[in-house]
Amino acid sequence: MTALPPFQALLDDHAADVMAVLRGAVGRTDAEDCFQETFLAALRAYPQLGDDSNLRGWLLTIAHRKAIDHHRANGRRPLLIAEPEELSGATPEPELDDGIWALVGALPPKQRAAVALRYACDLPHAEIAAALGCSPDAARRSLHEGIKRLRKELA
Amino acid sequence: MKAELRRLTDRAATEGLLDVAYATVDSPFGPLLIASTERGVVKISFPVVYDPEETLEELASQISPRVLEAPARLDDVRRQLDAYFAGRLREFDLPLDWQLSKGFRRRALRAIDRIPYGKTRSYTEIARSAGNERAVRAAGTACGANPIPIVVPCHRVLRSGGALGGYGGGLPMKEALLAMEGVLRKGE
Q1: Which site among A79, A148, B105, B188 is 20 to 30 Å from A22 CA-CA?
Q2: What is the pTM of this model?
């Protein structure tokens, strides 16, 4: 068995993607807390991790679970689309279009996660499926439905 | 992102999830990578062999993969190293973690750790202190494998005749440290 890389390498390589996914999933304001929870959970589990072939997928899976936990804790209320802070562009993030991500944030959970994993993280269908714990076909469907809905919103 | 990462490192430390903290510090000889565990300083890497990636991988496999960059947790080590290099500090006051050395090597390094500032010992003397006077070569190996150089002053160990012997950080560095401590005059 090869040794696990130092955890700092995971932060260097994947922290930005995890944050992007979480912003898409729970909105900018709550993403920070989910980010902390994601990496603390990852650190806790890391020494016992058996398979280190897809650390990015592993981290995104944890992020996805934390986002779901977050929505559950908020009583499954739909995400506010127009959180003023998000749309005012007070803290602009050049690589992300806040308007689009607010719409992504309003998608149903599976579609939202699929879209974020595909476009914020550039993951292929198989990895999206792994992160969501569903089949690649189901992942593709969620992605397709999500995109269709976004197109309608934007039209 | 910087603030988030700092907060994460702090929380990881509070929750006991930061097994190895590391930082890079400047020295007159080049950048040093320093690392510590909850017990104390565990690793200092020489500038000449400065390869942070390899050092961090070794720490991950030998101690724990929970290795995080956390300069704030190494402030005290950095301050004392700075003061030592500036000639303002003669004795380090730092907790040490000896876990990377075992058996005879650890005993030899503990003997080296007791050599005072500005003094030297021979490899034979170190071998004797470690419990086996004839293991001179092994004492030399222990010096070469010292995971915490500078703080554990293996530069103060010389050949019996007074020749410099070897040094993991390169002989010029050994000479410079001994000159700074007043043992050698430059060019001697």
Answers
A1: A148
A2: 0.79
| Interface confidence (ipTM) of the complex | 0.89
* pLDDT tens for each residue of A135-149: 888 889 989 999 899
Residue recorded with tokens 């599976």: A110
Instruction: Identify the closest residue of chain A to B6 by CA–CA distance.
Output: A36
Q: Is B183 helix (H, G, I), strand (E, B) or coil?
A: coil
**Given this model, what pLDDT does residue A2 score?**
63
At A130, which amino acid appears?
A
Q: How far apart are CA B81 and CA B44, in angstroms?
A: 11
Joined tokens for residue B78: 């950095």
Find the chain A residues whose C-beta atoms sit closer than 8 A to any C-beta of B: 3-9, 11, 15-16, 19, 32, 35-36, 39-40, 43-44, 46-47
- B60 and chain A: CB distance < 8 Å anywhere? yes
Measured between its terminal Cα atoms, the distance across chain A in Å is: 52
Q: A87 falls in which pLDDT band (50, 70, 90)?
A: very low
